[in-house]
Design a protein that fits this description.
The chain is of the alpha/beta class. The protein contains seven helices and seven strands, in the order βαβαβαβαβαβααβ. The longest helix has 26 residues.
C-alpha cells in the first residue's frame, strides 16, 4: 500500500505507543520512515525500536522550539527530497492538570497543553507543506472523544484536543488545493504511557469495555490500520475528518441496562 512512499512519524515513546504501532504498519506496507525523539531520555528507546525497521532516519525534535522544527525538515528534505505522509502523535499536559477539575487549570498549564498538543500540529503541517505540495500527501493526528464531551480528569487535554480537531478542518481547507489531506483519528482509550498519566484511567478502560458496542477496548493495531488507510491511495477522497476507532463507543448514549 505504501511502497515507495516516505513518511514522518512523531511521538514514538516506547513499544506501546500508538505512534510506534502506526510506524510498524507503515513500514510493513513498504514505506521508508523518519522518526523523531525529544531529548536524550527518549532517544535510546526510539533508536532501539527503529533498529527493527529498514533504513530509518532518526532525528531530534522538540516541537515547542521553531528552530528544531525548521532543522527537522531541512534534514528530511536533504534525506528524502519529498514527503508523502506525516503522523502527529504528540500530546502533553502537566500531571496536576489531569487531576481534579478543569476549573483549576493554571494559565501556564493551559498554555503548555495547547502549545504541545494542538499548535505543534499546525507548525509541523506548515513546515512539511513544501515537501508535499508538488505530489500531494496525507497529514494525520490523534485525538480523543474528550474533545467534544467532558471526561473525568481529562480536563485541559480535552480543550487542547478540541483545538486540534478544529485545526484539522482549517488545515484541510488551506492545504486541499495542494492535494494534501488532513485528518484525525479519535481512538478509544488505550493503555499507553501518556494515557496512564490520567487519574482514573483504569476505570475509564473498564467502562469503555462494558459500554462500547463491540464490548472490548481499542487496540493499537486497529488505530494503525486506520492510519495506514488514510496515508494510502485508498483514503484519497477523505480530508477534514475525524475518524472514530473506538469500538462504537461514541455511538451509544448510556451503559447497557442488563
Amino acid at each position: 500500500m505504501l511502497t515507495g512512499k516516505k513518511g514522518l512519524v512523531l511521538g514514538v515513546a516506547n513499544k506501546r505507543s500508538i505512534a510506534w504501532g502506526i510506524a510498524q504498519a507503515a513500514a510493513k506496507a513498504g514505506a521508508r520512515l523518519a522518526l523523531t525523539y525529544q531529548g536524550e531520555r527518549l532517544e535510546e528507546n526510539v533508536r532501539e525500536l527503529a533498529a527493527t525497521l529498514e533504513n530509518p532516519v532518526i532525528l531530534p525534535c522538540d516541537v515547542t522550539k521553531e528552530e528544531e522544527i525548521t532543522s527537522l525538515f531541512a534534514s528530511l528534505s536533504e534525506e528524502f527530497g519529498t514527503l508523502d505522509f506525516l503522523v502527529h502523535a504528540i500530546a502533553f499536559a502537566q500531571k496536576e492538570d489531569l487531576e481534579g477539575t478543569y476549573l483549576n487549570t493554571s494559565r501556564s498549564g493551559f498554555q503548555t497543553a495547547l502549545d504541545i498538543s494542538a499548535y505543534s500540529f499546525t507548525a509541523l503541517a506548515r513546515a512539511g507543506m513544501p515537501m508535499m505540495k508538488d505530489n500531494g500527501g496525507s497529514i494525520i493526528t490523534l485525538t480523543y472523544l474528550g474533545a467534544e464531551r467532558a471526561m473525568p480528569h481529562y480536563n485541559v487535554m480535552g480543550v487542547a484536543k478540541a483545538a486540534l480537531e478544529s485545526s484539522v478542518r482549517y488545515l484541510a481547507n488551506d492545504l486541499g488545493p495542494h492535494n494534501i489531506r488532513v485528518n484525525a483519528i479519535s481512538a478509544g482509550p488505550i493503555s499507553t504511557l501518556a494515557a496512564r498519566g490520567i487519574s482514573g484511567f483504569t476505570k475509564m478502560l473498564q467502562h469503555h469495555r462494558e459500554t462500547a458496542p463491540l464490548r472490548r477496548t481499542t487496540e493499537v493495531a486497529e488505530v494503525a490500520d486506520t492510519a495506514l488507510f488514510l496515508c494510502s491511495h485508498m483514503g484519497r477522497g477523505i480530508t477534514g475528518e475525524v475518524l472514530y476507532v473506538d469500538g462504537g463507543y461514541r455511538s451509544v448514549g448510556m451503559m447497557p441496562l442488563s
